[in-house]
Amino acid sequence: MGVILYLDTILVPLSLFLTIGYHAFLWHNIKNKPFITTIGIQKLRRKAWLQDMKQGDDKKNMLAVQSLRNTLLGTILSATIAIIIVLAVGALTNNSYNATHLITNYFFGSQSDRILMLKYCSASLFLLASFLCSSVAVGCFVDANFLINATSADDELPSTAHTGRVLERGFSLAVVGNRLLCIAFPLLLWLLGPVPVALSSVALVWGLYELDFACKLAKNIKQGHQ
């Protein structure tokens, strides 16, 4: 029993610390070195792109609508996946208590009632937060879509600045919602034990690092072409 509690109390907090620490490191780089992160580069490109929209070019306005539509659909998909998983976890909660006596291996960790409740609540909390952020992001994208279409060459600068703030708020919330959904998957694997949580967290951080840092991504693309 001591070994089981040791695995749950050590591996799971370390996994959360790893993922949260990585995102703190990513946020620091986005704020101070945006050119080395894909999120920072996209943010700078959006600012320049929005300034070009002030010229009132109808073709660029149509391109903006099409670009936001793809992001909007992706955000809606993230919110849908999050709420479906929450409902599925809620439906499995009662059934899991009946099967706990079948799981006695150390690999699955502690199966006490409190630990099981902690497993479901932690995963559901991240999933609900992901759903909330994605839902608010959808509203921001809808507002930004309208503001971009209403932008003309005669608009004053505060109007363009407000459009940029709404657009960036939507993208920021969409990224947060997506990352919360990613962090929730290792917590769902906690149902299978603390070891899958640790392994999946390491794999998650490694995969996100490959995508988030532009220098690493550019290097991999260059090697692929050679």
Automatic annotation (TrEMBL):
PANTHER family: PROTEIN, PUTATIVE-RELATED (PTHR31881:SF11), PTHR31881. The keyword Transmembrane applies. The keyword Ribonucleoprotein does not apply. Keywords: Membrane, Transmembrane, Transmembrane helix. The chain crosses the membrane at residues 5-25, 72-92, 125-148, 187-209. InterPro entries: DUF599. This is Extensin like. Pfam families: DUF599 (PF04654).
